[in-house]
């Protein structure tokens, strides 16, 4: 199977660019684009922040797992932007990985902080007392566990990241 016969799944921290780069990559490659955060919102009839305001963060992770397992991985192939917490679902990630190339958008903590100034209100599914540093450390290991490719390119413009991603995918 060549890469373009697989889906492309983007994982990484909130603010790493999964949604921004995902849609650009899909356009460039002529693929469909799916953002699992939007699927969660439509399924629950609430925004992610409303879901987190009214429920434990583990509820959001459970809904996310159901959504990941329901993504249609058959034709047409897609670029799939996941939420930052998707990697807590081992079954969801193993399902996506069977049909996809998984790319970790690895952005360092300083750049993430520049991109996310509303850590407490951004709707991050984390333990209430968990710091950003601790969350990044915990998740970095999970992103690496599931990724086939890692892109560390925080100094590039989005269009340059897309070019780089296309190069990396074509080498898989
Ligand atoms: N090189 C880059 N790649 C991706 N996003 C970038 C880049 N530089 C700045 N940004 C900004 O960072 C933010 C990324 O947010 P988003 O795409 O929602 O990330 P995620 O879906 O991973 O949470 C956007 O505001 C985007 O404009
Ligand atoms: O990291 C997280 O815990 C989350 C990230 C969000 O997606 P993005 O990573 O696209 O911001 C979204 O899935 C939800 O609000 C939880
Ligand atoms: Mg997103």
UniProtKB/TrEMBL annotation:
One Gene Ontology term from the biological process aspect of the record: aromatic amino acid family biosynthetic process
Pathway: Metabolic intermediate biosynthesis; chorismate biosynthesis; chorismate from D-erythrose 4-phosphate and phosphoenolpyruvate: step 5/7
Binding site for ATP: 15-20, 127
InterPro entries per record: P-loop_NTPase, Shikimate/glucono_kinase, Shikimate_kinase/TSH1
Residues bound to substrate: 37, 61, 84, 139
Similarity comment: Belongs to the shikimate kinase family.
Role, per record: Catalyzes the specific phosphorylation of the 3-hydroxyl group of shikimic acid using ATP as a cosubstrate.
Protein name per its UniProtKB record: Shikimate kinase
Species name: Marinibactrum halimedae
